[in-house]
Amino acid sequence: MKQAIIIRYCEIHLKGKNRGFFEKLLKDNIKKSLRGIKCTFSVMHSRYLIEDFNETDLEIIESKLKKIAGIHTYSIARVVGSNLEEITNSSLELFKYKKGTFKVETNRADKKFTPNSVETSRYLGGKILEKYSENLKVSVTNPNTLLYVDIREDGKTFVYTDVVHCMSGMPVGSAGNGLLLISGGIDSPVAGYMMCKRGMKLNALHFHSFPYTGQAAKEKVIELSKKVGEYNGGIKLYVVSFTEIQQKIHQFCPDEFMITIMRRFMMRIAERLAVMLKDQTIITGESLGQVASQTIESITSSNSVVKMPILRPLIAFDKNEIIDISRKIDTYETSILPYEDCCTVFLPKFPAIRPNLQKVIDAESKLNVEELIDNVFKNIEKIQL
Ligand code: ATP
Ligand code: MG
User: Nearest bound ligand to CA 347?
Assistant: First the structure.
């Protein structure tokens, strides 16, 4: 049996004059993702088509399509010759195990094909009822199963019933570049996924505090970055040592501002790296009120040290909503493995929940901020995933 995959996009339809740019980018992203898999790829009137693949590769192709931002849905169609006999036989095959109500929808690009669309639908509906009258009934308004018959101009017809929903969103690379601050927790991988979905191409940055945080914690972040990278056409992870900065803050600044000052350093380092990488924004997994460092005062304090916009796609999400997405993108099980994060090193008993910006600035003035940051940049590890 010959099969084809019909791929549809969504929001690109709204793009007016720029539509060509988005269509080409999505096409390139799909082709890149399918590299190494035997198949042919073509464009078919605002849809894409994958054909000539091995049946054994179908599962892997589907799993890849589900991770490409910009794809709205796809269908796996049976490909038959454009004649009533072949179309009828494959339609009957598709309804072998179906129950409930159905409707047939025919689209006839080949106007030379007879009978016309309405008559073809009626004919096929009759044949299906004739064979499966015990299990099936017609419903024009709300059918359980829709049979699509797509009669093309090239003598081929696609017959299918299922439409699989994918990520939707915009193709990665269409909405600029961002630097994702990734920890080993649940939130930041989800934040990264959300930005990929809107078309942003990501790099990732992780702070570790060797020897306070171990190799296992780093491996975990590598694993999570890899998973985010599956939605991003791969990802480069930059690993920065945060130990010296934390020790200095611990030594010279009041305990209550430990986290606040640490986060200001994270943002400064992120901005400097982002500029080097030509990233236009910093992305975090913060969610308002989730922990002490995620109050509006804390956010204001970390925003104030950088000029670059900081995007926080999860800011208004509840933890449960974030967990749901992390399950869907398969990062949850990795995220909940026990680990130490640099943020938990030297954690004060009573952190300032609403830090006063002037007091934070005064506390921080005990440190040589520039020198500490310069030191970090002497030794950055880059991992291509
Ligand atoms: P997550 O679940 O993403 O770890 P969280 O709820 O633990 O977030 P915080 O520890 O306050 O919250 O971190 C807030 C955000 O700061 C994270 O979502 C992430 O973007 C960034 N961040 C925290 N720790 C690190 C780290 N070690 N390296 C890079 N970014 C970090
Ligand atoms: Mg965390």
Answer: 1
Helices (H), 133-178: none
Contact 238, 206 (CB under 8 A): yes
Q: How far is the CA of 338 from the centre of ligand 2 (A)?
A: 11
Name the class of domain 3-165. Answer: alpha beta
CB distance 181 to ligand 1 below 6 Å = yes
**41 alpha-carbon distance from chain centroid:** 22
Q: Is 349 helix (H, G, I), strand (E, B) or coil?
A: coil
> Could you tell me if 70 and 170 are in contact, meaning their C-beta atoms sit under 8 angstroms apart?
yes
Record the tokens describing residue 36, joined without a space: 């190494």
| Dist. CA 169 → ligand 2 center (Å) | 27
Number of H helices, E strands in the chain: 13, 15
Whose atoms come closest to the Cα of 341: which ligand? Answer: 1
CA 128 to chain centroid, in Å, comes to 40
- What is the pTM assigned to this prediction? 0.93
Residue 242 DSSP symbol: -
Tell me the pLDDT tens digit for each residue of 240-286: 999 999 999 999 999 999 999 999 999 999 999 999 999 999 999 99
Q: Give the mutation target among 187, 239, 288, 325 for probing the ligand 1 site: most ligand atoms within 8 A of CB.
A: 187
Q: Among the bound ligands, name the one nearest to the CA of residue 342.
A: 1
- The protein residue whose alpha carbon is closest to atom 7 in ligand 1 is 185
pLDDT tens for 307-349 read: 999 999 999 999 999 999 999 999 999 999 987 777 777 788 8
Domains 3-165 and 177-384 alike in fold: no
CB 284 near ligand 1, within 6 Å: yes
Which residue ranges make up each domain of the chain? 3-165, 177-384
177-384: CATH number: 3.40.50.620
